[in-house]
Amino acid sequence: MSRDLAEARVHAIETHRVTAEPYYEPVGDEVRLFEAAYADRIPVLLKGPTGCGKTRFMEYMTWYLGDRGRDPLPLVTIACHEDLVAGDLVGRYILSTSGTDWLDGPLTRAVRAGGICYLDEVVEARKDTTVIIHSLTDYRRVLPIEKRGLIMEAHPNFLLCMSYNPGYQSALKDLKHSTRQRFVAIEFGYPPRALEERIVAHEAGVGAEQAAGLALLAEKIRNLDKDAGAEGPSTRLLIYAGMLMRRGVGARRACEIGVVQAMTDDEVLQSGLREVV
């Protein structure tokens, strides 16, 4: 693999320091729980439905723990997928004009520099890939780099976190117990209607009446989907619909493409959703 290709693959994984306060509305005691876990560097698992704010929460906590942005921690976000291999996390040797060079992976960079490494939707990664994190999640706090014959001790500020959606679990895509029980788990859900109204109004830039309508719509659909064992519209979809409305798209049409069509391709379900809209 050439250096340019390897670096492109590594830098496609997001690494940044959160210096400005991200907008986040706490739903429960998740901020206090995460702060307590970070104080003792206890690995954290965030679990909840798609679009409920898990990634925004991670950005907020990175800002919060980094002295409110005055001493920002690195946040390394890795979007997990089935082609993710251990070398993508740890690093690899690459060819260069001078010969062969070692290029750190994002996990190695986070372990070396300190901060939070966030594995997003970790169940999408291959199970033989996630085994590499085990030694970072117990008293050892080390990362073995087998290709270099090194054992790297984690920076004192390093914390490993990951997330997944329990609604997408299956026999083939589930966390191994040997991995799962190395983390404390914070459960996320969609916010209550009054809070979701504020979130939609702020993020979509719509008025209180439109935000209230979208939040009520979500509540009605989620109640229907709960009976059917399905997952309702995410807060993210409500924000998208609100953005379309702010740009002059009619409310019904915005909900059609932002909620109904985005949620399902099943014509029967679409018909039911349109009735609620």
General description of the model:
Residues 5-13 have low confidence and may be disordered. This protein is of the alpha/beta class and 277 residues long. The strands form three sheets. The chain has a six-stranded mixed β-sheet with strand order 1-3-6-9-2-10. A two-stranded antiparallel ribbon has the order 4-5. Helices cover 43% and strands 18% of the residues. The chain contains twelve helices and ten strands. It is elongated. Strand 7 and strand 8 form a beta hairpin.
Classification by helices and strands: alpha/beta
Low-pLDDT segments: 5-13
Report the sheet-strand fraction: 15-25%
Instruction: State the separation between the terminal residues, measured CA to CA.
Output: 51 Å
Q: Compute the average pLDDT.
A: 90
User: What share of the residues lie within helices?
Assistant: 40-55%
Main pleated sheet: 6 strands, mixed
Extended strand count: 10
Q: Judging from the principal axes of the Cα atoms, what is the shape? A: elongated
Write down the Rg: 21 Å
Instruction: Count up the helices.
Output: 12
